[in-house]
Amino acid sequence: MELGSTAAARSAEWIGAPVHEEWGQQRRPLVPSKDPFYLPPAGYEHARPGTVLRSRDVQIAFLGLIPQRIVATQLLYRTTDMDGEPEAAVTTVLIPAERPPHRPTPVLSYQCAIDAISDRCFPSYALRRGAHAVGSLPQVEFLLVAAALAEGWAVSVPDHEGTRGMWGAPDEPGHHVLDGLRAALSAPRLDLDPDAPVGLWGYSGGGLATAWAAEVCADYAPELNIVGAVLGSPVGDLGHTFRRLNGTIYSGLPATVVAALTHMYPDLRRLIDEHATPEGQKMLARIERMTTMHAVLRHVRTDMDDLVDCPLDELLDSPEVQHVFDAIKLGRTAPTPPVLIVQAVHDRIVSVDDIDVLTDAYKSGGSHVTYHRDMFSEHLLLHPMSAPMTLRWLIDRFEGRPLSENTVRTKWPTLLNPMTYRGMWRLGTVAARVVTGRVLHRRPL
């Protein structure tokens, strides 16, 4: 799948005239399901994965309200689904105001925790000015995207669930991430170097998508110069996570995954149709339209056992469900790029035991793994608190600095590391610029 100049020429064939949007001439942006930009042109399936099919410039706004002085381009590109069939996806590519001199601009693919089926949670919609996406996590995670831009990096923010919200699918998120990078690197209007160093970063559901990209990149996109991947609490075993979260304050998350998986696995759909009560069927239909936080708040302590006509454990142990849980579990392939895994010991959403198993699988498969196993933090707190450490690790990878020789497992908490607070000061200045809509200046070398 060599891209290079051939891909750039092929992209140019498909791009056509880019669409430029002016806020004064536009109403509230359309959700993806109603936006013709997301519909691929006829014959797109014959293009190579990563080929740009259409592009447009968009305005980005924090929380949909505060306009950002950032160049943002959306690319519709050809990719593949979990079965290897062609489909299209969208990434939002943000270019820093100041690029590093005398070397290629590093490129980061940041995977948001979409964790929903609703297209209101897709980053390509949620990050836009005027987006009505209350309860979507990408709107908050933009602060970390901005921190990467302030380092002088270009950032690709893909809709890694595709255009259908395939939350929990195996392999497919990795294809979407990698083809989004191919599209960004080959689009002439972005002026990025195809050989630029590439980093991957995501947390929770975004960490899961990042892990899939790290696992499949050697076979799927070997030409990409991926120098490191950060897997933040990457939901290594969705089957275990379902059992753990069902009936808790986070039970809306596994319910959303089940609703999504029924669109991917016909046998699971049949099982749900046979055994879900009328109220269970209605709940799964409603949750497909909810943003992530809406689903969590609406379904606090919902027990799926009350929404089926037989014991839930009986369904979970059935061959149909076990097949799905086995298919969507991480760890089948050890990543070739070095990885930093970040996980809280007292995480109430993702079990540290599952991440221990995933780390050991990667290590035994030959991956270089740095494992930060944080003693004090919880799931939601660890993402921002570990951001300074993550950015330092990515800076080292982009600069080509040597890795430590051995896998590191540490329980030293970020909350007790003075470097965390130096980094948080930097993140605070970036956040202040985002909230006031000012230009993000690159950190001095």
TrEMBL record:
<protein>
    <submittedName>
        <fullName>Lipase</fullName>
    </submittedName>
</protein>
<dbReference type="InterPro" id="IPR029058">
    <property type="entry name" value="AB_hydrolase_fold"/>
</dbReference>
<dbReference type="Pfam" id="PF03583">
    <property type="entry name" value="LIP"/>
</dbReference>
<dbReference type="GO" id="GO:0016042">
    <property type="term" value="P:lipid catabolic process"/>
</dbReference>
<dbReference type="GO" id="GO:0004806">
    <property type="term" value="F:triacylglycerol lipase activity"/>
</dbReference>
<dbReference type="InterPro" id="IPR005152">
    <property type="entry name" value="Lipase_secreted"/>
</dbReference>
